[in-house]
Amino acid sequence: xxxxxxxxxxxxxxxxxxxxxxxxxxxxxxxxxxxxxxxxxxxxxxxxxxxxxxxxxxxxxxxxxxxxxxxxxxxxxxxxxxxxxxxxxxxxxxxxxxxxxxxxxxxxxxxxxxxxxxxxxxxxxxxxxxxxxxxxxxxxxxxxxxxxxxxxxxxxxxxxxxxxxxxxxxxxxxxxxxxxxxxxxxxxxxxxxxxxxxxxxxxxxxxxxxxxxxxxxxxxxxxxxxxxxxxxxxxxxxxxxxxxxxxxxxxxxxxxxxxxxxxxxxxxxxxxxxxxxxxxxxxxxxxxxxxxxxxxxxxxxxxxxxxxxxxxxxxxxxxxxxxxxxxxxxxxxxxxxxxxxxxxxxxxxxxxxxxxxxxxxxxxxxxxxxxxxxxxxxxxxxxxxxxxxxxxxxxxxxxxxxxxxxxxxxxxxxxxxxxxxxxxxxxxxxxxxxxxxxxxxxxxxxxxxxxxxxxxxxxxxxxxxxxxxxxxxxxxxxxxxxxxxxxxxxxxxxxxxxxxxxxxxxxxxxxxxxxxxxxxxxxxxxxxxxxxxxxxxxxxxxxxxxxxxxxxxxxxxxxxxxxxxxxxxxxxxxxxxxxxxxxxxxxxxxxxxxxxxxxxxxxxxxxxxxxxxxxxxxxxxxxxxxxxxxxxxxxxxxxxxxxxxxxxxxxxxxxxxxxxxxxxxxxxxxxxxxxxxxxxxxxxxxxxxxxxxxxxxxxxxxxxxxxxxxxxxxxxxxxxxxxxxxxxxxxxxxxxxxxxxxxxxxxxxxxxxxxxxxxxxxxxxxxxxxxxxxxx
Length: 776
Prior knowledge:
Elements: E1 16-17, E2 24-25, H1 27-41, H2 43-50, H3 79-88, E3 93-94, H4 96-101, H5 104-107, H6 112-116, E4 120-121, E5 125-127, E6 135-136, H7 139-151, E7 159-163, H8 169-182, H9 196-206, H10 215-220, E8 223-227, H11 231-234, H12 237-247, E9 251-255, H13 261-264, E10 265-267, H14 272-275, E11 280-281, E12 285-287, H15 294-311, H16 319-325, E13 326-327, H17 329-336, H18 341-348, H19 352-363, E14 368-372, H20 374-377, H21 382-395, E15 405-408, H22 415-420, H23 429-439, H24 451-460, E16 465-469, H25 473-476, H26 480-488, E17 492-497, H27 502-505, E18 510-515, E19 523-524, E20 530-531, E21 533-536, E22 541-545, H28 559-571, H29 579-584, H30 586-596, H31 603-607, E23 613-614, H32 618-622, E24 632-633, E25 649-654, E26 659-660, E27 663-664, E28 674-675, E29 680-683, H33 685-690, E30 698-703, E31 711-720, E32 727-731, E33 756-762
Parallel strand pairs: 2-10, 3-4, 7-16, 8-9, 8-14, 9-12, 13-24, 14-15, 16-17, 17-18, 25-32, 29-31
Antiparallel strand pairs: 1-28, 5-6, 5-18, 10-11, 19-20, 21-22, 22-23, 25-33, 26-27, 29-32, 30-31, 30-33
Helix pairs in contact: 1-2, 1-3, 7-28, 8-28, 9-21, 15-18, 15-19, 15-21, 24-26
């Protein structure tokens, strides 16, 4: 079925480096999106599919979790959303014959890009323990294998069940129900590796681990901070929201180590100004912060607000809000008064006058929103940093009123909904009580393993079976060598997937691939009718998703069907949970969710309304904070200054523009000027010169961690780039090998992928490699 032969990797020396772009989107975004669609799907299929993306009667984009506006454009998708759809709706197929020709040992040597280009999986596949080759099996055989291995475990805690954010609410609810009926809370998920720090900090400070703003709040804000985030690549539709906010008079402050094209200027491809005009400058102020300096920045801003209040009492802080809705203010104010300006300057790398100018922006704004992504969540001190963001907003009452609030911008579509449905290794007792009341069995109460703990437990043999509902765990996880050893030591690994990825090649002694329907495809019920599932976006809106394409193969099952049939295979017919009824009728699943999960009352009726419904959020809706005291908490967070040994740099991992999470769409990052390659490291020119390394030279990246062998990523091309001194950046998953498994954020246990201490080691003197050096 493939329109073209699957792509091969470009040869050595193909990498080209050009000047970075100063704007994002525009006509190039349209042409790149359409080219990808035509290449993967063909012209007619591209048109039919893209016109259904993010529409009220269509399907939710399988990419990011950015919410849809009430009034939607005919083309309500971005360039990377179109790429995500094209990758899923491709006509390329991975057949049993492919696996017969490519043993696991060969696939393990291929790149994520090459693997992803092969197309959609078509049959359940089994790699026996004594074989290097996957062979086709029936669904019944596959479920028997899983049931056999789970049933042979001495304890349910010897299995771990991973979840990717793409899973629907219905599938996630059934999955956690299956896992808890089996008897464990080992439910690691992708949140553990990205926004867990956000949930931890927000739950502690405002009582709910979700953002407090809706799209209308972003439009109505007078000042918006975009912190540690590159929306031009990771959430491109956010640029349209920022453009609308700018049209209404908002001021935008970008805080990031790298200048990002989308925040410099946005050429909206949905209007004439974007296509033919100059577009819209988005960031009024750019604070090029040193890695990990955000806590110090927000504490400095809060100190300047406090100083302004001291100079003009009663005019700056919202004393009524502080008195009525918060606690801990006095201890926080006392700490602010001890803040050292030298520590702030060293931690942030920013001139103090730039911070003071930003404080004046804050003083002139009646409503402030702070948005952030993984630039804040993947440091050792990420949770204190986000607590400090909350402190900053509480001072002027910027939570719980229009145009203001906290806005963690989640990544994968429905990653937030998965957690709402109970995908959590540390479930709340009230949720477990509700499950017990609904189904009659006693759910396990002991906390389970998160993602990092799961890797450790597989490594020691404590976890013997690893089951993944979507995702690409090998490429998403830190410390690649340790993760691969851990998975290869399992008795059985199971991957529920739409496409081939590295986790199918780095597998247990025995392995299964269970192919599933994608978002774009019809999910037909027993009566042949097309069914829908639901998702929750990054701002707590729940809506339906209906695929329209025929199944990529007659051998695919939906994720709910896979869970329900596996449960019947393991537990037998009958029992406490009506698994057969749940597979047959998703309305029955939603009725159960309505009885168990707060906020989903009358789920089936409300989700059928165009656009769905908004989940309740007490701090936003009522200025009620469901903490232990009933008030939002000011917290005391000492400033952290990340100091590295001489000659070392602080590395952050990031995405290319031709990428979403671990899915590599192509080998270009045109906004940063990288073409036909990914093994690059962005370094300040003075840092390269100080080390005697030329722009364009090939180096090894070596990370250092106490009491641990060095980790090495080989053959990265050094690219002179506008980064803060002492900092550098490289793409994941290629750089994940450098992130130590034991380097995690306090409280959230998230891997510290944004603060890795590395050194650059020269390999060979550059020769032809300099041909693509960046124009000066």
